[in-house]
Design brief:
The structure is a single chain. This protein has 365 residues and is of the alpha/beta class. It has 2 domains: 170 residues, 3-Layer(aba) Sandwich (Rossmann fold); 179 residues, Vaccinia Virus protein VP39 (Rossmann fold), CATH 3.40.50. Helix content is 28%, strand content 31%. It has 10 helices and 18 strands. The strands form 4 sheets. The chain has a 7-stranded mixed sheet with strand order 5-4-3-6-7-9-8, with helices on both faces. Helix 4 runs parallel beside helix 5 and helix 9 runs parallel beside helix 10. The chain starts with a helix and ends with a strand. The protein binds S-adenosyl-L-homocysteine. The site of S-adenosyl-L-homocysteine has 22 residues, from strand 13.
């Protein structure tokens, strides 16, 4: 898939209209969202979708009640906008309180139990008394446990639909929701003799400690002082902060809003500066922006085709955004085969380090 193909939005006909989808955006094709869409019925006046992705799950409510969507992924937000669906960039727990008759939550399975717990709490807080929550998920990804947790927070609930491992439940809010509490975490980690305090929200990559692959990449870099460096998929700044500290002028792109807020806070608290872009791969960067170095610890998930698309788009973007002579550093699991793509785009590649992870290196000619 070329970079142009990655960024293309594709219209999908749907009985309720047209939904645009794109690589890297959650929610289609996805059996959880699909079963949710087949279960939802309007109730009251205002609905809130707390994990909309491209908007498939709440689409049947469109035109029958007011539907608001809170989304964190730039890729998904681009698709929602193109579809003309009402959505804003926000974390689930930023929803207006006791304001909604209906809430929808496709369990954010990949984001860990803390983020999922806070999403459930957010749903409970956003609903008015007597309001309803549709909860959708996969029994192999904790649905039963989260359904119990939702019942403890809200009250009465019943399983509406099951199809294979996918489940949809409906709950009613019968009691006041507990307070939100502290959502931020912080940890300190030394990188080559300098201590950094990383602040982060739940659901970010490598919460609570730096990823060993990130550290390996940092050890493999040459002098960066004064150079323009692009960090693709910056997370809370595991690469960005040490690079900024070493005197690089870093541009950091990140698709996930929770990660991006974490990065901004971490930069501030460490007295460091970088340019930060909420961006689906390189889409949010100025068109003409070019860099001396591109670094990335790309997202991956065994068997997750969505993420493989993204990781490959990272490599394409690195090539497209480097100046001639510019250097590309990528760290990955040894079993992930980036080499053929590097060969095709850069014409060569090298393994700089090989440990539990490998650091691949290529120069743009
Ligand atoms: N550089 C950080 C994080 C690496 S994990 C570190 O080393 O600690 C990969 C990051 O890529 C995640 O934060 C993930 O949210 C982000 N990401 C995933 N899809 C993306 C996309 N389409 N565009 C930009 N960033 C993306």
């Amino acid at each position: 898939m070329t970079l142009e193909e990655y960024h293309r939005l594709t219209p999908l006909p749907h009985p309720q209209g047209v939904v645009y989808v794109k690589p890297g955006a959650r929610g289609y094709p996805d059996p959880v969202y699909d079963l949710l869409a087949r279960a939802v019925e309007p109730f009251g006046r205002r609905a809130l979708d707390l994990n909309p992705g491209v908007g498939w799950g709440s689409l049947p409510l469109e035109g029958r009640m007011e539907v608001e969507r809170l989304e964190t992924s730039k890729a998904a937000l681009l698709a929602l906008k193109k579809s003309g669906l009402k959505a804003r960039r926000a974390l689930p727990w930023e929803a207006e309180e006791e304001a909604y008759d209906l809430a929808l939550l496709a369990l954010p399975a990949g984001r860990g139990s803390r983020y999922t717990h806070l999403s459930l709490l957010a749903a409970a807080r956003a609903l008015r008394m007597g309001g309803r929550l549709y909860l959708a998920g996969d029994k192999n990804k904790g649905f039963e446990r989260y359904f119990k947790e939702a019942q403890a927070l809200l009250g009465y609930g019943l399983l509406l639909k099951r199809e294979g491992p996918v489940r949809v439940a409906l709950l009613e809010k019968e009691k006041k929701a507990p307070p939100l509490g502290e959502v931020w975490s912080v940890f300190t980690e030394g990188v080559q003799g300098t201590a950094f305090r990383f602040h982060h929200l739940p659901g970010v990559f490598s919460a609570g400690h730096l990823d060993p692959a990130t550290l390996l990449l940092l050890e493999s870099l040459e002098e960066v002082r004064g150079l323009e460096v692009l960090d693709l998929g910056a997370g809370y700044g595991g690469l960005t902060l040490p690079l900024a500290h070493r005197g690089a002028r870093v541009a950091a792109v990140e698709d996930d809003w929770a990660s991006l807020l974490s990065l901004q806070r971490s930069l501030e608290e460490n007295g460091l500066v970088a340019e930060v872009f909420h961006s689906d791969v390189d889409e949010g960067l100025p068109k003409e922006a070019r860099y001396d170095i591109v670094v990335t610890n790309p997202p991956f998930h065994v068997g997750g085709s969505v993420l493989l698309d993204v990781a490959q788009a990272f490599v394409h973007a690195a090539h497209a955004r480097l100046r001639p002579g510019g250097r590309f550093y990528l760290v990955a699991n040894p079993f992930l085969k980036y080499e053929p793509l590097l060969e095709a785009l850069f014409g060569h590649w090298e393994v700089l380090r090989q440990d539990r992870y490998k650091v691949l290196f290529a120069v743009r000619r």
